[in-house]
């Protein structure tokens, strides 16, 4: 166990160092002066704030500059945005919870829908229901997320007017930003019309959540189907039938519990896919998350924001993925690698 822990921690640390060096190198690859791309401040301002220029050691060697860059990152000095002039650490901390919230709700919806359908497909293996669900899962997985989001907007928002087109909440609601997760902030606030605000938030959440959840739901159907089929073909299931238990008793007493054990680690691994899809959907629904913020930074050629945003997304994906895999290995040492969903 100690060797596994050391191996994963060292691999995570090396990956993060490589990502930070790539982020540092972007300041020299982007147009403009590297110090401007690192700090977000113009050279004229840097002359008046000598401490900032000194912190990055612009006159020293590249490795020495990289070391000071890491020190500044550790202390939360990520530079300033060209377009807004605000500290990048504060801006990212403001928009990141919106992306995590959207991804979490999409994952919950995918689990609620995908697991029962996966059980249904497995229990009717090689029958009409199984073939139909597999066909639907293949179609859902093949549809591009951005095209699906536009199609959903066309049908549910423009054609029928059932849900809002964009945004996170209507403008006439003022929700204090406490945690960054808007539903939690509404519940923690002393707003007089909480119920109306929550309904409005859910209506704004539905379309982007549905757009992201479709792809993940198809993956969960296939993961669950495979796990249930493998579980139902094991020896202890055959022994349960031999003892005279009915199919209902075997499924509810032994099948569900044992089939879900290998599923949940794989579900956790889908969160990174959800996060990347959420960043695409955010731009379509004008969702104020990290993906939409990054696209705006690209439009405005805000190089410090692009550098900091890419580093944030990369670090978040690496840390979350490594944490999940490490947890799985510690809980189940015999598992050598995660199995991918297959038909």
Automatic annotation (TrEMBL):
What Gene3D superfamilies does UniProt report for this protein, alphabetically?
MetI-like
A Pfam family annotated for this chain is BPD_transp_1
Domain named ABC transmembrane type-1 is located at 96-328
The keyword Transmembrane helix is assigned to this record: yes
User: What keywords are assigned to this protein?
Assistant: Cell inner membrane, Cell membrane, Membrane, Transmembrane, Transmembrane helix, Transport
Membrane topology of this protein: Multi-pass membrane protein
Under PROSITE patterns, the record lists: ABC_TM1
The text of the family note is: Belongs to the binding-protein-dependent transport system permease family. OppBC subfamily.
Q: What is this protein called?
A: ABC transporter permease subunit
Species of origin:
Paraglaciecola aquimarina
């Amino acid at each position: 166990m100690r060797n596994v822990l050391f191996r994963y921690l060292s691999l995570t640390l090396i990956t993060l160092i490589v990502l930070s060096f790539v982020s540092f190198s972007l300041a020299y690859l982007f147009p403009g002066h590297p110090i401007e791309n690192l700090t977000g401040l113009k050279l004229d301002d840097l002359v008046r704030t000598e401490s900032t220029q000194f912190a990055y050691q612009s006159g020293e060697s590249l490795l020495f500059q990289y070391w000071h860059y890491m020190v500044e990152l550790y202390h939360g000095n990520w530079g300033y945005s060209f377009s807004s002039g605000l500290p990048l650490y504060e801006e990212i901390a403001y928009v990141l919870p919106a992306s995590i919230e959207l991804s979490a709700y999409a994952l919950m919806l995918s689990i609620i829908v995908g697991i029962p359908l996966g059980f249904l497909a497995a229990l009717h293996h090689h029958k009409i229901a199984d073939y139909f669900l597999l066909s639907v899962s293949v179609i859902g997985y093949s549809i591009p997320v951005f095209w699906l989001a536009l199609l959903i907007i066309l049908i549910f928002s423009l054609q029928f007017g059932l849900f809002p087109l964009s945004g996170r909440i209507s403008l006439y609601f003022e929700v204090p930003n406490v945690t960054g997760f808007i539903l939690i902030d509404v519940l923690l606030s002393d707003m007089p019309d909480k119920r109306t605000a929550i309904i409005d938030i859910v209506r704004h959440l539905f379309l982007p959540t549905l757009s992201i959840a479709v792809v993940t739901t198809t993956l969960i159907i296939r993961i669950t189907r495979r796990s249930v089929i493998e579980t139902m073909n094991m020896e202890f299931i055959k022994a349960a039938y031999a003892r005279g238990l009915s199919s209902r008793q075997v499924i509810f007493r032994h099948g569900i519990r044992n089939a879900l054990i290998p599923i949940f680690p794989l579900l956790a691994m889908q969160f990174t896919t959800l996060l990347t899809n959420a960043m695409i959907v955010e731009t379509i629904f004008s969702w104020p998350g990290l993906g939409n913020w990054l696209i705006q930074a690209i439009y405005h050629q805000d190089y410090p924001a692009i550098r900091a945003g890419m580093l944030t997304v990369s670090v978040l994906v690496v840390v979350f993925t490594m944490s999940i895999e490490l947890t799985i290995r510690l809980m189940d040492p015999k598992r050598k690698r995660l199995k991918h969903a297959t038909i």
